[in-house]
Structure formats: structure tokens, C-alpha cells
Amino acid sequence: MSKMTIVAVDAMGGDNAPAEIVKGAMEAVSRSKDIKVLLTGDLQKIEPILAAGNYPKEQLTCIGTTEVIETSEAPVLAIKRKKDSSLVVAMKLVKEGKADALVTAGNTGAVLVGGQVIVGRIKGVERAPLAPLIPTAKGVTLLIDCGANVDARAGHLVQFAKMGSIYMESIMGIKNPKVGIVNNGAEEEKGNALVKETFPLLKANKEINFVGSAEARDIPSGDFDVIVCEGFVGNVILKLYEGVGATLISLIKKGMMSTFRSKMGALLVKPALKDTLKTFDTAEYGGAPFLGLNGLVVKSHGSSQAGEITNSILQCVKFNEEKINEKIKVAIQKTEE
Amino acid sequence: MSKMTIVAVDAMGGDNAPAEIVKGAMEAVSRSKDIKVLLTGDLQKIEPILAAGNYPKEQLTCIGTTEVIETSEAPVLAIKRKKDSSLVVAMKLVKEGKADALVTAGNTGAVLVGGQVIVGRIKGVERAPLAPLIPTAKGVTLLIDCGANVDARAGHLVQFAKMGSIYMESIMGIKNPKVGIVNNGAEEEKGNALVKETFPLLKANKEINFVGSAEARDIPSGDFDVIVCEGFVGNVILKLYEGVGATLISLIKKGMMSTFRSKMGALLVKPALKDTLKTFDTAEYGGAPFLGLNGLVVKSHGSSQAGEITNSILQCVKFNEEKINEKIKVAIQKTEE
Q1: Cα–Cα distance measured from residue B79 to residue B91, given in angstroms and rounded to the nearest whole number
Q2: In 3D, which of A308, A290, A246, A250 has the Cα closest to residue A16?
Q3: CA distances, A329 to each of A121, A172, A207, A291 (Å)
Q4: Which of A8, A309, A334, B282 has the fewest CB atoms within 10 Å, i.e. the most exposed one?
Q5: How far is B54 from chain A (nearest CA, A)?
Q6: pTM for the predicted model, two decimal places
Q7: According to the model, what pLDDT value does residue A283 have?
């Protein structure tokens, strides 16, 4: 019998909180018997939503909190001052071992600060990276780090490569995942100072399957399973991915509506196109795991609807069952010896 | 009467050389009486293409060269050794003042090295940036630097902002162009060490219209006229732009061909969609100017067809007539005083 996974869920974080978060949590416990959700937030707002829903009551417990960290708040100050916020209380549940994981769609900065300060890093992990799955022509690729750390050093990137490989192998079932480093050219002599220092370290590392430089134009084609970069560049990649996709799709929709003839055509292509574009929607893959912490923290998009929250919660079960953090501990300590 | 602009064209550079390059040159001189082209390359290959074309002969002169720098060659060595290559000879024409500008679709690395070493930088310009126009929902944005320099410093980025502003104002006719810096968040306290150092310098500079941080997701929406970043990040942005666009368009085409119904629809939307997607095609805007050199160097895509070469050559006329380099000289020296 598999062990129960306990997931703390920040009911007040995100643009659509608490309604979509609570709905996502109800759906998750309805789908899997192996999950218990601890929902932190304003009980007066949460309870009516729960009362209207149908779900296994014994798998969901509410924990009342009185404060909310807003999207616009300065992260460090918010984490320090709002001790009774839905996010901080949920993080403490993970810290104290009362929950295995946390799912939140709240203030990204606060999640990153709280992850390091409250939940804490695994011993030996120097920086904890945020690692979303991004859609490609062939499936998904793990982009690590997409913004948890700026000005990272070569040693950090090597740890990112290991953690990302463990994640893709254990969670996504990809044997010997191909690791690339974001570079400004395919040749080995290319790169800025950081990449030039990191490249030989990755190449020499026998625990990962390093296949070389990933030019940005090749990221969407899906030739890499894990793409390593420092957080500033990763943040640019993630956000540009979303930005170019959204702009292009809106231009295409506008183009299709521009003539009578194209409007007729649009009606015909719509169903097929909807399925295609769904595969390129980052929300389909749940939230981004914040790896290397004492427990799993999953950051969902601020705009998350119930479906993404459900996916993020379900993702925690596999993370827990596959003992990702124990594998990370072993891999990191192996290098340190 | 406007002065003649003399453009050296590297007939042997690029995937489609020399045929498409020569055709592009013939078209450019056919379209404008104000251009004279000096075509460098293998005469045995160029002359038959010219013989088959119809163009004003007095506006196009061939200069025979015996060597070609291949795409795969190491740039520094190639520039040093292949003195009689079509690229090096064309660059020397600019250096010696025999041409105002150079257009090439050849080895990017060799163009960047040769630009600095042979053509040389304007006095006071510390780094010469490559600055392509990228398509947005509202038109185009100048991305500066997109890969000529990695590990740039704050002072370099300030020069890039000035050169980019001059270009957009003089060439694209945008009054007081809005300058943004690529950042990992919209707030002023965001950024890596380089951005944090550069931000206040741009903010304090009265010669540019600095409007703040550009998050990568906002680049395609077109709210900035000039987007400043160091070359590694710029290279990632440019290539990801092309990569995401190409992948998404190919997925959409595949989606449209997936059912009988959608195939019928595709036939109807095709003409309207073609126009829309054209606005998002980077090749439509000619090559990328390599700014801050003693003369203009324009780098066209390696995959350039005749049309892009023609656009790149025509672009040199405006650059020359608007005296961009004299404006850059004045702006750079003003800061140095």
C-alpha cells in the first residue's frame, strides 16, 4: 500500500484565490485516495466554497489563517511580518514535517524567500532552483533555474543539472535524461564567463548525461530533457516563451477574423487547432517545482484555475512516492565527498 | 540631390550564396538610383548570374576574390588568414572609405570579429552591439545587443541605449523612442548585478527616454522601441523568438492538416493568415545593423533570400543619409566630457 501524501495548499494565493484554489483541492482529493490536503486561509471565505462542493471530507482539513501576502508586496518583508498568512502557515507545516509538500499560486518572490528561509534547503544544496516544465514540439523540457537565483555560480549550475536529471528520470520516466546548457552558440568555445566555466564541469560529470550547448532556437524543438541556466536567463526564456506564444496566437486569431472567407475557415479549423495549442500551454503541466528544499514546494501560475491547482497537487504524490528528495541528498553528497 | 551610397556586398556569404545575394544586389540597384554596389566574390560564379539579370550596369561593380569564409570556420583565425576572402575584402572597402556600408549573410562570428578588427569602432565607442529589429504586436523593436558582446559592463549598456535610440529615431522615425532594459521583473529592485548597476545610470541619463524594466513576456507586445541587454541574454531572446515562432507555426500547420474538416478550413484561412504571419517574420525587416563602427555593417540572416539582401542594402541608404554615425559620435563624446 502506498503511503499517504500530505499537501499543504495556500488557499489565498493567486489571482483567482480562494475559489479556484479550493475547487482544485477538492478535485485532487476526489481523484486520488493517496492525498490529504491541508488548506490554509480565511475560513469565512473557504468554507462556503467547500460546502457547495462534493469531495471525500476526511481527506481535506482547513486551517484558519488571518493574513494574506498580496502579489505586490515586497517578499522579504512580507514573509518576516505576516506570520499568520496562508503562505507562511502552509510553509511551516512542511518545515515541521506535518506536510510533505506545499502548493501555492501566490507571490513568487515570497514563495522563493519563504522556501529558503522557512522550509530550508537540503543539506549540501547551495541554491534551490525553480524548475518548470516547458512545452516543446516533442513533449516537455525541464528548465532549471527559471528565476529563483540570479548571479549563480558554476557549481550551482552543476547541482541544478543533477537535481533536474533526478526529477525528469523519476517523475517523467525519462531514462538517462539529456542535459543541455543554454548558450549563445552550439560550439564548445562559445559562451559568457559563467557558461565557459560550467561547460567542462558538466562534461566531466559522470552522473549526468550532458549533451552540450542548447541554443535558444533549439529549446522549443525538444532535443533536451533538462536545460540548465542561471535564473536571470531562465526567467527571460520562460516569460518570452509565454509572451511570444500568446502574441502569435492572438495575431493568428485576428488574422482568421479579418475576412469573411477566413472567418468561415476559422470555424472549421477551430476544434483541431484547440487541441494543438493545448499542448503548447504551460498551464497544462501544473506548477513549477522549487527543488532542493526540505519538502516539495510547487509554484503554480498566479493566474491558475482549478485545473492547474489539481495537477500541481497530484504531482506531489509522485514526488513523494519516488523519494526525490532522498535521491537529491544522495547525489549532492556524493559530489561533496 | 542626395549623395550616392556605396554598399559593399559579400556575394559569397550565407547558405544561398552567391545566387540569392547577387539577385538581391541587382534588385536593390534597380529600385534605387542612389546606390552603388561593390560585389566581392568569385567572378566565375557571380558573372553568369549577373549576365542573366537585368539591372543598371553602371551601379554595380564586381571585385574578384579567391577565398570564402565558411559558416563552420573559427572566426578569429578565418579573418586573420583569409585576406582575399569576399568578407575581408568587402570590410577593407569600408575601412578605407571606398564604401559606406557592408551587407553580408556570412559567418556571424567572422562578421563580428572583422567589424571590430578591420572596420574598427568609432572613437569613444567601447563595444559595438548587433541590433536587429524584432517583430512585435505593434510593429518592431530594436534589440541591442543581441550577441556581439558577452559579459558587457553597465557603461556599455548605456552606450547601447544611446546608439539604439539614435537608430530608431533617425531610421524608423520614432520620436523620443522608449528604452527598456531586460529584467526578471517589473520592479526597480529586481535584476542581476549588471542590471542593478545599469538601471540607475539609464534612469539618470537625460539623452534617452528610459521607461524602466522590460520583462521578457512584455517584449512581443511592443511597448518598447529600444530594448537594451547584454549580448548573451539578447542572443537568447532573438533565437528563442525565432524558435518559438517557428515551432508554434509548424504545430498550427500540422493541427490544420489533422482532420478533413480542418483541411477545408485551412484552405479558407490561408491567405489571411499568410499576411498576418508575415508581420512576425524577422526576415521582413532586413539584416541587423552592427552599430558603433566606422561605417555601417549589416548582418543578414545566414538563410537570406534575395529579398532580405535587397532590404538590407536599401536600409544602408537611409543610414548614410541620416548621418547615423556622426550622431553616434556626438552622443558618445557628449558623455565623455
Answers
A1: 10
A2: A308
A3: 10, 19, 14, 11
A4: A334
A5: 37
A6: 0.90
A7: 65
